[in-house]
Q: What sequence folds into this?
């Protein structure tokens, strides 16, 4: 069987793996999508292979911070790793939220490796009708 070889492929893979591993002081960035759905904003983060107890979500003022850690799978002593390409370590993302969002009522769900945050729009930011009064507020000033 013939195989095409690239002498730099393994070096590139190792360099990428070493550069992408995150630590708590210098985490890697996690991919995300953000969109509006009705009266709420939805932010979805890709976190495959991360346990739900390894996800930390904080809101301070208008700064939303999501941190997650993908830990190595426990292996027995007789296991020999042949290939390891999935990045391990800490992943983090910070988002500045608008003042029009209700940070007190954020909902977080984690399913199939996707963390989904639903952030409702604050009542004060929703459009509303204002009634117009007729003639009740006018006075003439004579001097």
A:
């Amino acid at each position: 069987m013939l195989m095409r070889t690239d002498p730099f492929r393994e070096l590139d893979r190792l360099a990428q793996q070493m550069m992408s591993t995150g630590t708590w002081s210098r985490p890697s960035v996690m991919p995300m999508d953000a969109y509006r759905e009705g009266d709420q904003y939805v932010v979805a983060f890709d976190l495959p292979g991360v346990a739900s107890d390894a996800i930390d979500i904080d809101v301070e003022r208008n700064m939303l911070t999501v941190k997650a850690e993908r830990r190595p799978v426990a292996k027995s002593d007789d296991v020999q790793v042949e290939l390891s390409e999935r990045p391990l370590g800490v992943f983090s993302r910070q988002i500045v939220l608008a003042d029009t969002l209700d940070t007190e009522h954020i909902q977080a769900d984690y399913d199939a490796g996707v963390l989904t945050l639903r952030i409702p729009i604050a009542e004060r930011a929703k459009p509303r009708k204002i009634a117009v009064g007729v003639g009740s507020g006018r006075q003439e000033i004579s001097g």
Observations:
- The mean pLDDT is 82.
- The radius of gyration is 25 Å.
- The longest helix spans residues 9-20.
